[in-house]
Amino acid sequence: MKPRHRRLTFVVIGLGLLGVAAALILSAFQESIVFFHSPTELTEHTNLADRRLRIGGLVEEGSVDKNGATVTFRITDLANTVSVAYTGILPDLFREGQGVVAEGHMKSGVFVADQVLAKHDETYMPPEVADALKKSGRWQHMRESMEQAGQIPRGAAR
Amino acid sequence: MIVELGHFALILALAVALVQGIVPMVGAHRRDPALMEVARTAALAQFMLIALSFGSLMYAHATSDFSVANVVANSHSSKPMLYKLAGTWGNHEGSMLLWVLILTIFGAAVAAFGVNLPQALRARVLAVQSWIAIAFYLFIILTSNPFARMIPAPLDGAGLNPLLQDPGLAFHPPFLYLGYVGFSMAFSFAIAALIEGRVDAAWARWVRPWTLAAWMFLTVGITLGSWWAYYELGWGGWWFWDPVENASLMPWLAGTALLHSASVVEKRDALKGWTIFLAIVTFGLSLLGTFLVRSGVLTSVHAFAVDPARGVFILGLLVVIIGGSLALFAWRGPSLRGGGLFQPVSREGALLLNNLLLATAAASVLLGTLYPLMLEAVCGDKVSVGPPFFNSVFIPLMAPLVAAMAVGPLLAWKRADLAAALSRLWLAALCTLAAILTVWLVHGLRDLVGIVGMAMAAWLFTGTLSELAARARLFTVPLGESARRLANLPRATWGMSLAHAGLAVAIAGMTGAGVWKQESVQLMTPGQTLSFASYEITLDAVRPVAGPNYEATRAAFTLGRDGRKLATMAPEKRFYPVEGRQTTEAAIRTTVSGDVYLVIGDRQGDGGYVTRFYFNPLVAWIWAGAALMVAGGLLSLSDRRHRVGAPARKAARGAAGVTPVGTAGARS
């Protein structure tokens, strides 16, 4: 083989690999991307059944009901709420009034979560939750109360 | 006073770094030995100053000096001493100080042990290291000063996040940073070579030990992090494809590729431009990892409190460092003439395939990790890319890599005979077939991933052994002769075989734990017995216990099989009053065949407790495999070739030594 042909072989192999990778990525994206919605968006769009979703907001005060292995609670963006059912052990930082992200799907008006994420750090607000609150127009209010409670540093993310 | 001294030392280090960044570069350009020599003195001085600075912060943590804001925010007088010390780097400011400490350790190592590098190359390498240091000193001093005082001083601190009060995590960040920052050496060597316009076998031989060391540290760091997530988070998993985990995996993939391509430069003088490019990309990905962790732009289970100003600063730094070095590469790269030609079927060809696959894998992980950011910036949709994406892209890319890994070492340099290499693998092929049939018979055909994974592990493990056997001419010469041949193999060869075998063991573990995991969640009352995976599990009692700085609810489980008692297991739910937090302490019983993993949850209204059981097959193999890989790296690093055998550069400029030395271990 001439050097030029050799180099061509490598280029072809490389491009082939990239093509395969691109195909894999595109097909995987179609199946496995999970969209995030705030409780307000969920109440507006009712055609989301069967799709895997992430929702986020604050755990509504007084809404947590621990009876049996399935826990139910409501997630709020301070404008709308969504009921959530979760079977399993809640993360250690799960608490009423705190930000939380849940992954699962809607089933007859209840969000059935198979994963609930709270954060390692209580001074941390998941960006999606902050955005959901901003969208519902309650962020400024929430931020001030969090600053007062010392949960976020003064003058942090706006 | 000591704290001010530390702050002052940090600022002084910045001044020294400015000198080290400019003077040796000018010296190397003018070939002025005196100016070039400044680099060594300055590198040692920087190390001492930062060590002093870090030491004083550690002192403040150890003595619980609550007039320092960093100590107040992250420590408490009742915390055990180990975690007071680990608390020094268990927070943003301290961890950045650790980052530069490690950077200066590497710089000082080059200054102290790189005595036989050509002076000009050493001067340039140290100058480039210093540019990186300048950027990070500025970052620390301007946005995250660990020495800020808090006046009046409070009586006690806020405590350290209890999840971090754990030996696994105490040592996870230092190792991770040793890996991240270690790749800065390869980067500095690459930039110095681009400035010098010279990449040759000697250069590759000097770079390899640093890359290998960084790779080992990163492997240890990732494994410790994964192990910690496994037993501390109580989720029964060891890898979540979380952005922060991906951030450490990407430099590992690129670094692994770099390790292999550098050997092609060393042995065959080919793939030079590609190797330089990989060195830049690997360090760029390390910086990106730091950015992702520190800026909090992505939702991650590992995300901690963040400050956007810092994120913007690191992003700027990332743009300047990666953009600048890629621009330099585009300008100077074409002048690097490739040397040895080779056929597609050859050792070089196999290593190139390894590089292409690893680079593609790193790129797809990067895409999956950053896609949510891109999509949000472009369309405003918020999405998350989870494990299904990564599994369906990553596994198909790794399968051919592993298949080729068994064959590659059997190929000759330059031009090889594929049929002859494959014919040596007949035993490996037989073992692989046996593995496939075994899995098929036991689990049926539905777990295709399980079959593929186990086949890959068997193929790689037996293929690696076959390669050793071929080198020893096992069974074609007398056994004694084979043993002698094996004993005489270079340590680097043993290191490679060990690392490859380690990957095989780890793949078996990942497959087992990923595919055949069993899980159940239920409500249990004390006295109740349930059967789970081939075990009977009884909840005997739940009672409160007190720890040094926490209160816990501890459950007592009896684990039995066929009426025989195997063990008692005691998972806990801990409450740390200082921090006001709960943590889960899983009880894990590890055996070779798998881990039984029990978690106790909250008490429910009717007196029962939520319990969660996992059976995770072969998890211990993952840790064992990683340990083997690191051991392989260590063995290879101790090879004499890396220390004394490096060829003196032909017609090297300046004062090239007689016996060039490239590793930190040379004089120890």
How does this structure look, described?
The complex is a heterodimer of chains A (158) and B (668). Chain A has 158 residues and is of the alpha+beta class. Helix content of chain A is 35%, strand content 28%. Chain A has a five-stranded mixed beta barrel. The longest helix of chain A is centred in the first third of the chain and has 30 residues, at 3-32. Chain A is elongated and about 75 Å long. In chain B, the strands form two sheets. In chain B, strands 3, 4, 5, 6, 7 and 8 form a six-stranded antiparallel beta sheet that branches. A four-stranded antiparallel beta sheet of chain B has the order 2-11-10-9, with helices on one face. Chain B has helices at 2-30, 33-62, 69-74, 81-86, 92-113, 119-143, 167-196, 201-232, 243-268, 272-295, 308-332, 347-378, 387-407, 418-423, 426-443, 448-472, 479-488, 491-515, 619-637, 640-643; strands at residues 383-385, 518-524, 529-532, 535-546, 551-561, 564-569, 572-576, 581-585, 587-590, 594-603, 609-617. In chain B, a hairpin with a 4-residue loop joins strand 4 and strand 5. In chain B, 62% of the residues lie in helices and 11% in strands. Chain B starts with a helix and ends in a 25-residue tail after the last helix. By secondary structure, chain B is of the alpha+beta class. Chains A and B meet through helix 1, strand 1 and helix 3 of A and helix 12, strand 1, helix 13, strand 2 and strand 8 of B. Strand 1 of chain A pairs antiparallel with strand 1 (383-385) of chain B, so a sheet runs across the interface.
